[in-house]
Write a structure and sequence with these properties.
Blueprint: H1 2-29, H2 35-42, H3 46-53, H4 57-79
């Protein structure tokens, strides 16, 4: 049961991270300069930075929380082996 919850948490946090990352890139694509959208999409850590600069605070916080949750879920999964 614990393994199932660990896998579920890992998958859900990763899905949330990818979804918010794409949402940040799409939001940046609507605002000039548009090159930041490409940079944020390719250079992963730039996404929350650019999101905060463009007043997309909720997306930036969700991105950071999803990354933290994903990291914790990965550590728990590796420690439970």
């Amino acid at each position: 049961m614990k393994d199932t919850l660990t896998v579920l948490a890992t998958v859900l946090f990763f899905a949330l991270l990818v979804t918010v990352h794409v949402a940040i890139a799409a939001g940046l694509l609507r605002r000039p300069p548009r090159v930041r959208a490409l940079l944020a999409f390719v250079a992963f850590p730039l996404a929350p930075y650019f999101a905060l600069r463009e007043q997309m605070r909720l997306r930036a916080v969700l991105w950071l929380l999803a990354l933290l949750g994903y990291g914790v879920a990965l550590v728990v999964s590796f420690l439970s082996q």
